[in-house]
Amino acid sequence: MPLLLQARLLRVLAEKEVVPVGGTKAVAVNIRVLAASHQNLLELVKTGKFREDLYYRISGAALNLPALRERKDLPWLANMLLGKIKPEGAPSLSAAAIALIKKHNWPGNLRELNNALEFASVFCKDGVIEPRDLPESVGRSSGNDSNSGAQVDDVLPAMLDRFHWNISAVARELGVDRSTVHRRMKRAGLVPPNRR
Fold first, then answer.
1. Based on CB atoms within 10 Å of each CB, which residue in 54, 86, 106, 182 is the most buried?
2. Are 113 and 106 within 8 A, CB to CB?
3. What is the spatial distance between Cα 61 and Cα 16, in angstroms, rounded to a whole number?
4. pLDDT of 21-38, one tens digit each?
């Protein structure tokens, strides 16, 4: 928020009144402010980018939420999300998959974790998510994936047969990108009938 707007907000909080847009008379307001920031406001105060008086006006109670990568309960959270993704018969995470999940930085936070688990739940075998089932971006790069030759579960071959090897249709059905289907086919050694 620009400093000028910070000053206006401070005045509204101090005087408990606002002048509506286009109006000339102040109107009394009774408000509470709930603010959220992904930045350290005290550091912004020190650098002059956030008003100190506004900071102390709004900082009655502070709740610091750790980034996903800093959470100690990450395996529990991942299992809870899997239960929401597949309420009946949710897959479990292998110890190796949990290790990758803990190692990943999660720049996309909860949305990224949820998407990775949705992806893995489609490709896991026998109800257990292994490292090979997670998107390549999670904890490893495609160049050093030790499980790159691992076999994809029965879902992909069955889907390819069902949709007569129409990659776009399979991708739509699985809710993934076409490139993901191609990559998984390559890993599993699946070749379309017209290229055999």
1. 54
2. yes
3. 20
4. 999 999 999 988 888 888
